[in-house]
Design a protein that fits this description.
mainly alpha; 13 helices; about 70% helix; about 260 residues; Serine Threonine Protein Phosphatase 5, Tetratricopeptide repeat; elongated
């Protein structure tokens, strides 16, 4: 999922100031030359990685930041390099490597001031992998867990503010998956199975854009199952919460056709 990617980069870039040094840049050279193991002083190696990142060569930059940690594991530069590696992998869309780098940073520096940034990178790396509702949503649930973790740990940060917006989008996405499955069951005549899915949307994702349709589908399913009183109940909830929606109009019309004695009491 790549919506509002520019907003994410604004937050990420603003947070890089404390990590990326601005003094000088190492020269270029080929990718193999830059990433081959050559013992170099830590500043030269770090600045070579930064130069590659500045030029958009993100995969080579990530490899060079990793090399900083390998060659100088106990240097203060190693801490910065771990997060810069995670960011470089993220920009390169190598999300699994980005997650691993950020998790490594957190395992070594759990209380560091840059920990919120690492958690945010992890969440974004999951978020960017969210697929359409027709596919398995395991990665979506991982994204939701990671976003909730940021909000729980650092509720007053800019990362949490952005996470809360994305949590709403992720919940809407998960509700959409439930709706897709429910509709499939309906077309297959599996009314009870469809009702379970629509009920999940009403109970777990009631603030999403899918709630009105879910209530209408529950009205449909209840009528198909021969329980018009339940259909009326769902239609009433729909009317009370979404009186101007097309789904309420459709529910009212459906009950008028299928169970007219249920209208008005």
């Amino acid at each position: 999922m790549t919506a509002a990617r520019s907003t994410k980069f604004a937050i990420l870039s603003a947070s890089l100031g404390a990590l990326m040094l601005t003094t000088g840049c190492a020269g270029g050279g080929g990718a193999k030359k830059d990433t081959a193991y050559v013992a170099r002083d830590v500043e030269t190696l770090y600045m070579a990685a930064k130069d590659r990142l500045d030029r958009g060569d993100t995969k080579v930059a990530a490899a060079l930041f990793d090399e900083v940690e390998r060659q100088h594991p106990y240097s203060p530069w190693a801490r910065r390099a771990q997060l810069m590696s995670a960011f470089s992998y993220y920009v390169a869309r190598d999300y699994n490597q980005g997650i691993q780098s950020a998790q490594r940073f957190l395992s070594i520096h759990p209380g560091n001031k840059d920990a919120p940034y690492a958690y945010y990178l992890i969440a974004l790396s999951y978020y960017e992998q969210i697929s359409d509702v027709q596919r398995d949503q395991g990665i979506t649930l991982q994204a939701l867990t990671a976003l909730n973790e940021i909000n729980r740990r650092y509720p007053t940060t800019q990362y949490a503010a952005d996470a809360r917006l994305k949590i709403d989008l992720v919940n809407d996405h998960l509700a959409g998956k439930e709706m897709e499955i429910g509709r499939y069951y309906q077309t297959s005549g599996k009314w009870l199975a469809s009702q379970i899915r629509f009920q999940n949307v009403v109970e777990q994702y009631q603030t999403t854009s899918h709630a009105p349709e879910a209530l209408f589908r529950l009205t449909e399913s209840s009528l198909a199952l021969g329980v018009p009183s339940e259909a009326k109940k769902y239609a009433a909830v729909l009317g009370a919460n979404y009186p101007g929606s097309k789904w309420y109009d459709k529910a009212y019309e459906l009950i008028g056709k299928k169970a007219p004695t249920q209208l008005g009491g």
